[in-house]
Amino acid sequence: MDIQAYNPSGSEINVKADANGNLITSSYGSKLQNAVLAGNVYTASSQSARTWSVALNTTHTGLVVSNPITSGKNLVILKASFALTVAPAAIASIGLFTGYSTAGIVTHTTPLTPTNCLVGGAAGVATADDAATLVGTPVWALQMMGGFTAAALPSTTPSVIDVDGAIVVKPGGYVGIGALTAVVGFGTIIYQEVNV
Q1: Suppose 45 and one of 13, 28, 152, 188 were both cysteines; which one would form an S-S bond, judging by CB atoms 3.0 to 4.6 Å apart?
Q2: What phi, psi does 8 have (nearest 5°)?
């Protein structure tokens, strides 16, 4: 069935609905394209391979993205990735952890600069670190890579995990990549900033 609608300029446009009255839409470009073009999708990435701290250590080394308590934004986690650069000494699983404190993360030991996925776009409100002192109690939220043979790199690993908004970090919270045992590698977290 046809539905009468108007575009932002006020011109009438025709849209279609299915038999149940649901609007029929089609994708324009990629899944994230419109959000990126709106300028509110960011990436935080390790800029050099580093040794990740073991498990949920609050003196964390490795990538963590935090949302300042005064940001006025939620961080919708879209994607995460981890790439090993050295074969681990022991079996190591890799995952995302989260935590929260009304104080937020205040000790940024090794700050990183998140970048807008709209290259040349404005900076966001979130902070990122290659090392930070975590507050509150971090907990595992999503496993990204299972354990594998010690002293060997896995033959296949997912290069990017599609979190697809299943984790949202409100002001005062944080999300990071953790490893069960010490590993060396690069990490990336891609997120969207949306109003609270």
Answers
A1: 188
A2: -60, -25
More confident residue, 71 or 27: 71
Residue 98 CB coordination number (10 Å): 19
Pick from 127, 132, 17, 16: nearest CA to 68: 127
Residue 25 contacts by C-beta under 8 Å, 6 or more apart in sequence? none
Let me know if residue 16 belongs to a domain.
no
Residue 34 carries which side chain, given as an amino acid letter? N
CB 141, CB 175: distance < 8 Å: yes
Residue 99 lies in a domain: yes
Per-residue model confidence as pLDDT tens digits over 155-193: 665 578 999 999 999 999 999 999 998 889 999 999 999
* Residues 6+ positions from 75 with CB-CB distance below 8 Å: 65, 67, 126, 168, 169, 173, 175, 191, 192, 193
Q: CA 31, CA 48: separation in Å to the nearest integer?
A: 29
Whole-angstrom Cα distance, residue 96 to residue 2? 45
Rounded Cα–Cα distance for residues 127 and 8 (Å): 35
CB 177 within 8 A of CB 163: no
Q: For the chain, how many structural domains are there in total?
A: 1
pLDDT single digits (tens) 94-103: 999 999 998 8
Report the DSSP beta bridge partners of residue 74. Answer: 194
